[in-house]
Amino acid sequence: MIRRQKIPFLLFCLLSLMTPLFGFAEDTESTQRMVICRNTTAVRTLRVEKNAGDHCQTYYTKAGIDQNIGKSQSMHSCVEYLNKVRETLVKAKWNCKDVKVSTLSTLTETVN
């Protein structure tokens, strides 16, 4: 019989093994990542985009103007650029949140 103290540990181990299977872990190999930071009425965005080639770029948007702040062949490096700027903003009392990046599709109406 399994002791009650070991059940939480076993559940933790089981969830740790299942996490990659269900996509709960941070995916640094995805093609995009985005963070929105707010300080009162000011908004800044940080995003990583993987291009068709073998490189990614990290962008910082301030007042609607994109600035390329990093470029690499490694998605991990581009995410590191994003995280460093995010840390700086958080230290300056900005509230930052990850945004789930999705694609936008349009519907068209057909008339018979």
Q: What does the model show?
A:
By secondary structure, this protein is α+β, with helices and mostly antiparallel strands. It has a domain at 26-99. It has 2 helices and 5 strands. The protein has a 5-stranded antiparallel β-sheet, covered by helices on one side. Strand 3 (56-62) and strand 4 (65-72) form a beta hairpin. Mean pLDDT is 76; it is low at 10-29.
Structure described in brief:
30% of the residues lie in helices and 33% in strands.
In the predicted model, the low-confidence regions spanning at least 5 consecutive residues are: 10-29
Overall outline? flat
Cα-based radius of gyration, to the nearest Å:
20 Å
The separation of the N and C termini measures 69 Å
Structural class: alpha+beta
Helix content: 25-40%
> What's the average pLDDT?
76
Q: What is the number of E strands? A: 5
Largest sheet: 5 strands, antiparallel
Q: Which range does the strand content fall in?
A: 25-35%
- The tally of helices reads 2
The strand order across the widest sheet is 4-3-2-1-5
Order of helical and strand elements: HEEEEHE
